[in-house]
Structure formats: C-alpha cells, structure tokens
C-alpha cells in the first residue's frame, strides 16, 4: 500500500524568489523496463563489514542547532561493545573521544542489534574530521566535514531525497552552499541504488531526507532485517555527511495484530534528531541552522492543529508547509496540513517547498489557495507573488513504483511534471541567488531535466537590494550565475 499523504508530510522550504520559470508542460519521457524490485539480501550492496561485531549501518546527522556537533550512530550485531567515537583533524590521529549510549528493541519476532548514538560536539566550522568506531581488528574509520559558520553568504549544497512529507525551511539566510535534496520514498531497489550513485557525484554536502526510508513495513511482520539492509545500503553516504531526517508513513509501523501498538518504534530507536537543541518537545519535529540555511522539520503524521505543540513550534520558528499536486496518487491527502499552514507560507513569503509521498516529480508556479473554504467556491489555487513554488520529489526509487497517472489536462499552476525516478540539488550561491536542478535517472543514466534560478525575496527586496548593490553582481540569467563559480 502506498504511503498515506496525510500521515507523513515531509517538506523542505527555501525562502527565495523564482525567475526564469519554464512554461507549464507534462514531460513526454517514458521509462523503458527498469522494474522496481528490491535488491536481494545476499547482494554485495548489503554486505556485512568484516570482523566480529564490526560496526555497521553507520550514519551521522547534525547534533545541535548551529552545526557545531554531529550525532554518530551505528549498530553492533553480536554484543554492545564500546559506545565511543574517537576523532581528530588528521587521518588516523584521534586525539579526542566522545562517549555515547546504547539501546535496542524488539518488534514481534525480530530483535535488533545494539544501536549506538554518540554526540560529538565542540567542533570547528569548515573543518574535516576523521573518526573511528568499534574496537580491535573490527574498528572502522570514516570522515565528515563541518559546515561554514552561520552567515547569509555562506556557501553550501544540499541534496534532497525522500518520499514522505517532511517540512524543512531554508529561510531568508540563503547561502552559497549546494543543498542536496534526495527524493523521498527511497527504499532499497535497484532504482534506489541508482539514485544514490547519481547523488554521490553531485558534490552535495548534506542531504535533506523527506521520509519513507527502508520500506521494511512492506514485508511480512514488518521485517526488521530490511531495516538493517537499508542501513548498510545507504552507509556509503550517511557515514560521511549528515542526513537531516524526517519520517514518513512507512515508518509508522502500528501493528496491533502483532502486539505492536506504539508508532514509529524502529525509526525512533535507529535515527536520532537534535530536537532538544531547538526546544522541540518531540524528535518528530525540530529545527537546525546550517551555513546560511534555517531548516525546520515538521511531520504531518503528528498532531499539528490549533493549540498543539507542533503548530506552536512551527510558528515560533517561522516555519512553513506543503500541498498536493495534480497526480491521481494521494490527491488531496495533505489538505488538512495545507489549510493549517499555507497562510504562514504566504505571510512570510516562503518561496520554495519540497514535498514527497507521491512517487513522481512536479514543480508548480508561485500559487496559493489561502482564500479557499468549504462555502466560498474558491476551490483552485491562484497566482500569488507572495506564495511559494511547490516541488514534489517523491521519486527516490522504492518498490511501489511510479505514480504515472497525472490528471489531464495539466492545471495552469503546474509548471513541469514527469513520472520518473531522480534526485534534486539545491545550490545556495549567496544571499540573493540559488540554483535548483532536478536530475532524472534515465533508466540508470543521469539526465538533467529541470533547472530553475531562485532569488531570495528577503535579500532582494528594494531596500536591501540598494544596500547590497555595491557588493553583489546583477545577474540576468542562469548562465551568468553559474559562470561565477
């Protein structure tokens, strides 16, 4: 069963303004046979590291609010072993140590390995660190790079991946850093692997993951072995750069028929978030700052109505949310969250919203539906210069396949749409400009299919533009912008 859009809404929101948007069209591209079948468990892509009790499924995420800490997580299969991270600025010279914690869980007849989480803090900005986990001959070594200091002109790249609905807000502090957007609904098919391999070549520095991770719930008894295999599959990226996590409907795993009555049990044990650092009351929603980006993660599978904690947190952080597109899959499932949050998008001039859940790609024009109510008759989105551009990127590669049936004719507010797997890159060039690209996995090949230049509305307002005129170039088109870097 496909993910239910109301339950997990994953979004990444950038406060910027679009220029050079192409005319609306539905892509004529049709995939050839490249089935959405899961990679067999015995595949080399799921290989277990050599050595007794060797750490596996290694992943890191941001560990504080301002980007000077990481949370290093891993699993040891046989026994707890040490929950320590040795790290330093020189390869194989680990002059610092951090102590972590260990947990595990059971789900019906599955018992997890020993899950370690360790916060490494007090890091310097813009620095490469090497780290080691495990002991003896089974120890493993990795590295990561910290972001630049918080600054509106900081340079950074994000990748966007995922298939659920997560809300991340890249606010008016826009940077020169490429932002990688790895599409939601990744899963562990050969298409998922293709997406990861293409993303690795982009230069993305941090992934904004939109939810629906392993799709373990698609197997009998929500097979936890598929959580383990997914962790080993994505370790090629997650051990070396932060993935900013959010959950999707496939992480709910509410199975009273199996005696499992708590929600998000495997996800919450395996994937930590720095929610306490942003004064959140739940790991399901939180905020971080990274370089020039302010990222706010919300979940539509958690309460978000009036007077509830998530809405209060959202308003406190000036966050924003998502809406559905004109694909037959999950159409209107996000309506309740749209009605709760869209007015804030428009009020604060949020410019770019990323969502997952629908297994396809679609980009809108700048539109809003804030005047809609059940009696007014204003049922359709209308052009609004203060509203965001909405982008659906639920095309990571999961086993449920593509949502290839769009409503016809294409609505006026839809700029580009295509039922293909792929990934996105958001390159924050400076406080005023960003370049966004969606790249299609063309039956295994990387093909750029949609490119847009965004202008940050906060910094390009008339008053601030005059202040910045002496220090910033005036760029007319995409080629002018790219030529500077």
UniProtKB/TrEMBL annotation:
It catalyses: a phosphate monoester + H2O = an alcohol + phosphate. One of its GO terms (molecular function) is acid phosphatase activity. PROSITE patterns: FN3 (PS50853). Residues 1-23 form the signal peptide. The keyword Ubl conjugation does not apply. Transmembrane segments: none annotated. The keyword Zinc applies. Gene3D superfamilies: 3.60.21.10, Purple acid phosphatase-like, N-terminal. It comes from the Eukaryota. Keywords: Glycoprotein, Hydrolase, Iron, Metal-binding, Signal, Zinc. It holds the Pfam family Pur_ac_phosph_N. Its EC number is 3.1.3.2. It is an enzyme of class 3 (hydrolase). Residues 54-149 form the Fibronectin type-III domain. Belongs to the metallophosphoesterase superfamily. Purple acid phosphatase family. This is Purple acid phosphatase. It comes from Dichanthelium oligosanthes. The lineage of its organism: Eukaryota, Viridiplantae, Streptophyta, Embryophyta, Tracheophyta.
């Amino acid at each position: 069963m496909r993910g239910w859009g109301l339950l997990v809404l994953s979004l990444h929101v950038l406060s910027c303004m679009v220029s050079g948007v192409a005319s609306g069209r539905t892509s004529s591209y049709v995939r050839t046979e490249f089935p959405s079948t899961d990679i067999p468990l015995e595949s080399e892509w799921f290989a277990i590291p050599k050595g007794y009790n060797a750490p596996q499924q290694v992943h890191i995420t941001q560990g504080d609010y301002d980007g000077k800490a990481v949370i290093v997580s891993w699993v040891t299969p046989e026994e707890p072993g040490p929950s320590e991270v040795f790290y330093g600025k020189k390869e194989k010279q680990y002059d610092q140590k951090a102590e972590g914690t260990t947990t595990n869980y059971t789900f019906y007849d599955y018992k997890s390995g020993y899950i370690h989480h360790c916060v490494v803090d007090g890091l310097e900005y813009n620095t490469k660190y090497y780290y080691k986990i495990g002991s003896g001959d089974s120890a493993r070594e990795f590295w990561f790079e910290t972001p630049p200091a918080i600054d509106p002109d900081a340079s950074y790249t994000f990748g966007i991946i995922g298939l659920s609905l997560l809300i991340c807000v890249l606010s008016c502090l826009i940077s020169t850093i490429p932002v990688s957007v790895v599409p939601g609904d990744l899963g562990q098919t050969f298409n998922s692997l293709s997406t990861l391999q293409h993303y690795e070549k982009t230069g993305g520095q941090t992934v904004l993951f939109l939810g629906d991770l392993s799709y373990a719930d698609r197997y009998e008894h929500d097979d936890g072995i598929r959580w383990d295999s997914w962790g080993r599959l994505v370790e090629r990226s997650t051990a070396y750069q932060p993935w900013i996590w959010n959950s999707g409907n496939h992480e709910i795993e509410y199975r009273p028929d199996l005696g499992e009555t708590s929600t998000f049990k495997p996800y919450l044990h395996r994937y930590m978030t720095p929610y306490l650092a942003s004064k959140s009351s739940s790991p399901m929603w939180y905020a971080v700052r990274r370089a020039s980006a302010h990222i706010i993660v919300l979940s539509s599978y958690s309460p978000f109505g009036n007077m509830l904690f998530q809405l209060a947190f959202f308003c406190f952080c000036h966050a924003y949310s998502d809406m559905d597109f004109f694909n037959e899959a999950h159409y209107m499932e996000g309506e309740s969250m749209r009605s709760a949050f869209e007015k804030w998008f428009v009020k604060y001039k949020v410019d770019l919203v990323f969502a997952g859940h629908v297994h396809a790609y679609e980009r809108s024009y700048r539109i809003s539906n804030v005047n809609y109510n059940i009696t007014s008759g204003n049922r359709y989105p209308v052009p609004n210069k203060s509203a965001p551009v909405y982008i659906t990127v639920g095309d990571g590669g999961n086993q449920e396949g593509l949502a290839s049936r769009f409503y016809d004719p294409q609505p006026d507010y839809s700029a580009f749409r295509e039922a293909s797997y792929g990934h996105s890159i958001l390159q924050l060039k400076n406080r005023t400009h960003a370049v966004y690209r969606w790249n299609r996995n063309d039956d295994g090949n990387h093909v750029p299919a949609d490119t847009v230049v965004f202008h940050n509305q906060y910094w390009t307002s008339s008053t601030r533009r005059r202040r910045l005129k002496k220090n910033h170039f005036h760029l007319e088109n995409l080629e002018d912008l790219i030529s500077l870097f």
